[in-house]
Amino acid sequence: MSSSSATPSVESFEAVIVGGGMVGTALCALLAQAGMRVALVEVQPAPLTLESAVRKLPNPRVSALTPVSQRLLTHLGAWPAMQKTRVTPYKGMHVWDAEGSGEIAFSADEAGVAVLGHIVENTVTLAALNNHVIGDPNVTPYFGVRLQALQRSSGSRLVLDDGRQLHSPLIVAADGARSVLREMAGIDVASDDMQQEAVVTTVQCAKPHGGIARQAFIDGRPLAFLPLTVEGSDHYCSIVWSTTPEHAAVLSELPREALGEALGKAFGHRLGEVTVCDKAHRFPLVQRHARHYVQPHFALVGDAAHSIHPLAGQGVNLGLMDAAVLAEEVVHAWQRGAPWGELSTLRRYERRRRFDNSAMLGLMKGFKVLFGSHDPALTLARNLGMSGMNQLVPLKRVLMRQATGERGRLPLSCC
Ligand SMILES: Cc1cc2nc3c(=O)[nH]c(=O)nc-3n(C[C@H](O)[C@H](O)[C@H](O)COP(=O)(O)OP(=O)(O)OC[C@H]3O[C@@H](n4cnc5c(N)ncnc54)[C@H](O)[C@@H]3O)c2cc1C
């Protein structure tokens, strides 16, 4: 329904979420599951389905999902469909410094857990979440629409480009790193251009990956080979090479054979000869952190609140925790009849999430400086540090708990 002369149609919801990516859709599922009436607004023309998410060759965008994120996706009922489609567990992680002798290895056994995580195509996670959200009577999806304005008075009101207006005590921006809605709300971000781009593609290796996620630091440029099992073969990997924009441009222009050779050589041929199976995609890497996550009747989650260097595979995991904590605070207020969109409720969410997100953003910056340095003292320190730490099982256990998401007070949906 759209008309320029007639009175605009106003629809009311208990929450409106803008951005149907993994984080926005997970938040939508959590609120709807609790009984709230939610609108989900997405610029893409139609929701991704499990049928369209399945491809022989994996989609190049993958994420390492922590066991904590897995528990959230299980709580939402999405995990079984993801498992049936394609997820690759990893039980080990090897990280080494290609400039020196430093090397560290983590294993699920040492950490006392079944797996350290799973590598999953983003399309698989999103399609499995959509499977629950689309068709839920508590969810009204608005796909293929753009935002025109955000208005404030007794709640928030979103004006869509087709004239419809959505009114709610709570509007959430989950529209990604370059969030238009965050800008409309006037929330500023601290940006840190990492002066790197990620080159991403899918490869087949001569040697099996053995369920191990590997990462080499080559002159401060992390190259990850993330294990993928495709139709029973454990010779596939998703590669993410975070490098200078100039090098990324060169790599992405190489013929596949030459790119395979470059990847194999940079990786010290640990997985043997490398055959590139897909186009090389490039993603600029900018760390951003919103100065505020909340305003009255408004909140940011996921990449709209923070975007992080992919070297530790934490981005969507942090975003899913934002969704789980925001849902916990909002549902708790809604169930006891308290104003769930007011600042007092939303600030509890911000307090619970900002520290964890800031710490992770700071850590990624520190890694980049440490591994990018040619200072001989720092090079020696990092090599000694990695190798020394490799001998210290209790310390490695602490690190593993951090990397697997077992940090701080977890929301009940992730316990
Ligand atoms: C190379 C690379 C590797 C990565 N690897 C990992 C990893 O291993 N592990 C990990 O945890 N994270 C990883 N990440 C980060 C992860 O991909 C992101 O953190 C995650 O995708 C963010 O999810 P999101 O739902 O917040 O945002 P997005 O995925 O950006 O989704 C935003 C959604 O909003 C929609 N949208 C945008 N604008 C509008 C609008 N105006 N109106 C309506 N809808 C709109 C978009 O269409 C999209 O559907 C990686 C990132 C990169 C670049």
Question: Can you characterise this structure?
Answer:
GO terms for molecular function: FAD binding; monooxygenase activity; oxidoreductase activity, acting on paired donors, with incorporation or reduction of molecular oxygen. Residues 14-354 form the FAD-binding domain. This is 2-octaprenyl-3-methyl-6-methoxy-1,4-benzoquinol hydroxylase. Helices cover 36% and strands 30% of the residues. By secondary structure, it is an alpha/beta fold. The protein has a domain at 10-87 and 120-191 and 287-373: FAD/NAD(P)-binding domain. Strands 6, 7, 14, 15, 16, 17, 18, 19 and 22 form a 9-stranded mixed β-sheet that branches. Strands 9-3-2-13-21-20 form a 6-stranded mixed β-sheet. A 4-stranded mixed β-sheet has the order 1-12-11-10. The protein is globular and about 65 Å long. The relative contact order is 0.17. Bound molecules: flavin-adenine dinucleotide. The site of flavin-adenine dinucleotide has 31 residues, from helix 1, strand 3, strand 4, strand 14 and helix 10. Flavin-adenine dinucleotide binds at residues 18-24, 41-44, 63-64, 147, 174-176, 180, 198, 200, 240, 283, 302-303, 310, 313-317, 319.
